[in-house]
Specification:
Blueprint (H helix, E strand, L loop, with lengths): L7 E6 L7 H14 L3 E5 L2 H6 L3 E3 L27 H13 L4 E6 L1 H12 L3 E6 L15 H21 L3 E6 L6 H9 L4 E3 L8 H13 L5 E6 L5 H12 L3 E5 L11 H19 L5 E6 L2 E6 H6 L6 H9 L3
Parallel strand pairs: 1-2, 1-4, 4-5, 5-10, 6-8, 6-9, 7-8
Antiparallel strand pairs: 2-3, 10-11
Helix pairs in contact: 1-9, 5-6
This protein binds adenosine-5'-triphosphate, 6-O-phosphono-beta-D-fructofuranose (F6P) and magnesium ion.
The site of 6-O-phosphono-beta-D-fructofuranose has 10 residues, from loops.
Length: 325
């Protein structure tokens, strides 16, 4: 039987937004339109799909967006999509709007939704868009570079005042389940300690002893990068101040890390990944996710991608500790 020609591709962004998502949307739209395929944008992720917030996208609709932070389609977290009823409704709405293929730009959770839609007959391809860098099949996720640079610059500023006052600073970065932003900032900002959700039982007594020793070694400040998943930064700072007698302040960087104009790296990866995703759908592929591994763009089965857990490279964490003397 001849393969059914793809006529309409849908695109949505889901989960936490990430700088570079607009470049990925633009690439999907222009690649598909360039091949004579209609493109429909779905607003607010799976929630917008269930609410039928579906619009046509032209090449001009994505003009002047490659440099913008956030996502022009907006995004959401949607509980209903986690239920079989929600997934069936979403698949039926795709069919109602003639969407033969769907590009889902988001993180691991969004890919789980894409996998369900694929099982229900909607061809889906995932594009990794998350500041968390926590998708195992890819060395790169769109948004990480911008987010980690934003955090790094903010931490440099906190370090300036922390050094002037000879304080300890607990600086909380994003990452509810993933410690990559904490690890990279820990290395890039020369932090004394990095706390990540993957390394659950950090030893506060040891940190306190280290702060006291580091003072004796002549250190003028002490920076602890703490991931959101470990949290408790304000109380942690109070406990450290009481135990060490060193003034300690907590700074929670928060959602500033998800905003801002995407870096060159994010724009380039997003453009290529978005375009490749549209091309896979045009070839009739489904249940795939785009990744970047060993210097090349590749695609993987979503089931395979979701079954792998991305580990923190232990040796990198150890190097960060070695450099913090
Ligand atoms: N197991 C699942 N089955 C179906 N849909 C899911 C599943 N897990 C998540 N989703 C859908 O994907 C949405 C986004 O997932 P999640 O909140 O985990 O963010 P994400 O895509 O991992 O991005 P990020 O972690 O960067 O914020 C959820 O709100 C839900 O609608
Ligand atoms: O927008 P929310 O719901 O606060 O999400 C925060 C979470 O999203 C992420 O920023 C990823 O998008 C995580 O690092 C963080 O834990
Ligand atoms: Mg996620």
């Amino acid at each position: 039987m001849a393969k059914k020609k793809v006529r309409t591709i849908g695109v949505l962004t889901s989960g936490g937004d990430a700088p570079g998502m607009n470049a990925a949307i633009r690439a999907v739209v222009r690649t598909a339109l360039g091949q004579g395929i209609r493109v429909r944008g779905i607003r607010r992720g799976y929630q917008g799909l269930l609410d039928e917030e579906i619009i046509d996208l032209s090449a001009r609709d994505v003009s002047d967006t490659i440099q913008r932070g956030g996502t022009i389609l907006q995004t959401a977290r949607c509980e209903e999509m986690r239920t079989p009823e929600g997934q069936q409704k979403a698949a039926a709405i795709c069919k109602k709007y003639g969407i033969d293929g769907l590009v889902v730009i988001g993180g691991d959770g969004s890919f789980a939704g894409a996998q369900k839609l694929s099982n229900l007959g909607v061809n889906t391809v995932g594009v990794p868009g998350t500041i968390d860098l926590d998708i195992a099949c890819t060395d790169y996720t769109i948004g990480f570079d911008t987010a980690v640079n934003t955090a790094m610059e903010a931490i440099d500023k906190v370090r300036d005042t922390s050094t002037s006052h000879q304080r300890c600073s607990v600086i909380e970065v994003m990452g509810r389940d993933a410690g990559y932003i904490a690890l990279w900032c820990g290395i890039a900002n020369g932090a004394e300690k990095i706390l990540m959700p993957e390394e659950h039982n950090y030893d506060e007594e040891k940190i306190i002893a280290d702060i006291l020793e580091s003072k004796e070694r002549g250190k003028k400040n002490y920076i602890i990068i703490n991931a959101e998943g470990v949290g408790d930064s304000i109380n942690m700072a109070q406990r450290i101040e009481e135990a060490t007698g060193t003034e300690t302040r907590a700074t929670i960087l928060g959602h500033m890390q998800r905003g801002g104009s995407p870096s060159c790296k994010d724009r380039v990866y997003a453009s290529i990944m978005g375009s490749l995703a549209a091309k896979l759908l045009i070839e009739g592929k489904t249940n795939r996710v785009i990744g970047y591994q060993h210097g090349e763009y590749q695609d993987f089965d979503i089931n395979e991608a979701l079954s792998l857990k991305k580990e923190i490279p232990e040796y990198q964490y150890e190097i960060a500790q070695e450099l913090a003397i």
